[in-house]
Amino acid sequence: MTGKVKTFNKQKGYGFIKPENGDDIFFHYSSLIMEGFKTIDPDTEVSFDVEDTEKGPRAVNIQRV
């Protein structure tokens, strides 16, 4: 899937992605695939996979496009 980062809280390490279609999807910084300190700015275009968890859908394997 693809979408844009809607929000990211650097202190708490999580945020939400707005996919091209559908509801916002939660993500944790540990799902960001990048070198160094893991942070990402709002409006960054990303590709990702969706994993179903007991708390709902979660974005994983997140990469900038």
Assembly context of the chains: single chain
Overall mean pLDDT: 96
Largest sheet: 5 strands, antiparallel
The proportion of residues forming helix, as a percent range, comes to under 10%
Overall, the morphology is globular
Keywords: Activator, Cytoplasm, DNA-binding, Transcription, Transcription regulation
Pfam family, one: CSD
Subcellular location: Cytoplasm
Protein name: Cold shock domain-containing protein
Q: What is this structure's SSE topology?
A:
Layout: E1 2-9, E2 14-19, E3 25-28, E4 45-53, E5 56-64
Antiparallel strand pairs: 1-2, 1-4, 2-3, 4-5
How would you characterize the overall build of this protein?
- The protein has no helices and five strands.
- By secondary structure, it is an all-beta fold.
- It has a single domain (2-64), classed as Nucleic acid-binding proteins (OB fold (Dihydrolipoamide Acetyltransferase, E2P)), CATH 2.40.50.
- A five-stranded antiparallel beta sheet has the order 3-2-1-4-5, with no helix packed on it.
- The mean pLDDT is 96.
- One of its GO terms (cellular component) is cytoplasm.
- Keywords: Activator, Cytoplasm, DNA-binding, Transcription, Transcription regulation.
